[in-house]
Write a structure and sequence with these properties.
This protein is α/β, with parallel strands linked by helices. The protein folds into three domains: 156 residues, P-loop containing nucleotide triphosphate hydrolases (Rossmann fold, 3-Layer(aba) Sandwich), CATH 3.40.50; 60 residues, no CATH class; 126 residues, no CATH class. Helices cover 27% and strands 22% of the residues. It has ten helices and 13 strands. Helix 4 crosses helix 5 and helix 5 packs parallel to helix 6. The protein binds adenosine-5'-triphosphate (ATP), iron/sulfur cluster and magnesium ion. The site of magnesium ion has 3 residues, from helix 1.
């Protein structure tokens, strides 16, 4: 489902964060870590955008930039019709900060162990002067705890008295206290047991339906992303390599990197096991990324332009954008047959029958399992 008829809440353009590396007595800048290197996306009301990619590709840095926890090197961040927040001084962010909140990865370290839950959840109500102290604030905290499925008397207890899943609920109640429109969830369930993960994901879906919340959902887990997200953005070395509606991206991955990531996701159906692609080596250093397409040293489909030219992110006409020369009309006629053959079976072919291209995932809307042909350039 795409919610493009819904109001545009967050718009990010050419966002960059280059962390300086300093050396020597004078702390001279000798290089930069290009953690985020020109990312674009939109988030609409009631929509969930998943950000996926291997470790170190810039997912958390993107989230921290949007929360204004770190200052961008360049780019634009707009919430609704706000001015460009990326170029505003910190103080002027304040009216917008309330609209975006964070759900943290680790429910154990993100809650102050010395504060009772009521004080943790009520803190933001006090900071933003939303509810007067005393009975009105206690009532509001109890309401928030109920909203996330905790008993009202949880307010009197301390974080260590709760399980991991319950602590994550406390974290969500704290984030909801200021009535945000956007929640940035950075690996919010990866520290939890699988059964508890499902409960927290269900809670997030319920809250989204009731409150029209928008989520930026950062995760390694493509199965969870497939279930929860309406759209997905795949990052590699600080850049977007593919983005589009979840069913399109997961049933019909185009970029060789997306195909490789998806090949690791277990498929439930009998005889529909995907051929696993094991990528060579780790993600290269963002200090000195490879020339041309940053993925070329690990790509089985590379051809002439790949080492020299960085691919443009090109709209494929069906809501998907891909940054790969294989999908650029300019190079269409120069793709060698051997590369066509490799791509045809790359990641989407089931192990049991390599001649048939099939990808299988669960859609966010129907939870149905679907098979479709993967597109070729
Ligand atoms: N404060 C910092 N100073 C220098 N480099 C940083 C800083 N924060 C992050 N980085 C680097 O930026 C790159 C992207 O980091 P980031 O945490 O955004 O990755 P990630 O995609 O969230 O990874 P993971 O999946 O492991 O959480 C990494 O190479 C990281 O080492
Ligand atoms: S541009 Fe070339 S190296 Fe990069 S993913 Fe596409 S085929 Fe592979
Ligand atoms: Mg991270």
């Amino acid at each position: 489902m795409e919610n493009h008829d819904q109001e545009l809440l967050l718009s990010v353009r050419n966002l960059k964060k280059h962390f300086p590396i300093r050396k020597g007595l004078l702390s001279r800048v000798v290089a930069h870590v290009k953690a985020v290197d020109g990312v674009d996306f939109d988030l609409h009301r009631g929509e969930t955008l998943g950000i996926v990619g291997e470790s170190g590709c810039g997912k958390s840095t993107t989230g921290r930039l949007i929360l204004n926890l770190i200052e961008p090197t360049a780019g634009e961040i707009r919430i609704g019709d706000s001015p460009n927040l990326a170029s505003l001084p910190n103080k002027q962010w304040l009216p917008y900060r309330r609209r975006i909140q964070m759900i943290f990865q680790d429910p154990y370290s993100s809650l102050n162990p010395r504060m009772p839950v009521g004080a943790i959840v009520g803190e933001a109500l006090a900071i933003h002067k939303l509810t007067p102290p005393g009975e009105p604030r206690r009532r509001r905290v109890a309401e928030l705890l109920e909203q996330v499925g905790l008993p009202r008397d949880a307010a009197r207890r301390f974080p260590h008295e709760f399980s991991g899943g319950q602590r994550q609920r406390i974290g969500i109640a704290r984030a909801l206290a200021v009535e945000p429109e956007i929640l940035i969830a950075d690996e919010p369930v990866s520290a939890l047991d699988v059964s508890i993960q499902a409960q927290v994901i269900n809670l997030m879906e319920d809250l989204q339906r009731k409150m029209q919340l928008s989520y930026l959902f950062i995760s390694h887990d493509l199965s969870v992303v497939g279930h929860l997200c309406h759209r997905v953005l795949v990052m590699y070395l600080g850049r977007t390599v593919e983005t589009g509606p979840t069913p399109k991206l997961l049933y019909q991955p185009r970029h060789p990197y997306t195909r490789a990531l998806l090949s690791a996701v277990p498929v439930i159906e009998k005889d529909q096991r995907r051929k696993r692609i094991v990528l060579d080596g780790d993600v290269p250093s963002p200090v000195n990324p490879p020339s041309g397409c940053h993925f070329h040293p690990r790509c089985a489909c590379k051809f002439d332009p790949c080492e020299k030219v960085y691919p443009k992110l090109i709209d494929q006409g069906d809501g998907v954008k891909v940054a790969c020369h294989l999908y650029d009309p300019e190079y269409k006629d120069s793709i060698p047959d051997s590369v066509h053959r490799t791509l045809n079976n790359y990641g989407t072919a089931p192990a049991s029958n390599a001649s048939q291209q099939v990808a299988t995932v669960t859609t966010p809307e129907s939870n149905d399992t679907t098979t479709e042909d993967a597109p070729t350039p």
